[in-house]
Description:
Blueprint: H1 4-17, E1 21-26, H2 29-35, E2 43-47, H3 48-57, E3 59-64, H4 67-79, E4 83-86, E5 94-97, E6 105-107
Parallel strand pairs: 1-2, 4-6
Antiparallel strand pairs: 2-3, 3-5, 4-5
Helix pairs in contact: 1-4
Amino acid sequence: MESKSKVLNKIFKDLRKRGLWAKRGLCCQTCTLDIIPNGVEHYAFYHTQDFTALKRYGEMRIAFGEYEDADAICEIATNHGVTAFWDGNVNHRVLLNFNDAPGTIDYIPVESFAVPLTSML
Length: 121
């Protein structure tokens, strides 16, 4: 069985293959948002506090740029046997749970919304 860290590395490698600016283990969310290159809208990252949560509790959160990025994170994580949860809110990061049954997915894909998200605010 692969370590959580190796699986996470594979997830981020696949996110980069999808064209996302994907970085791992940076200082904090504020600093990471500050170093994303100008014009980059599609990104995914986690910071040191997230990785600490993974080591302690077996789960962590991933920040992202656009709705499609959250969907990609969920899809790729489940392809690597990690449970992904996202509630469809761009203000909430994607939760990856390495403790649950492999490859389960529990999120609301963007295309499933019957009304525009702006009307729900």
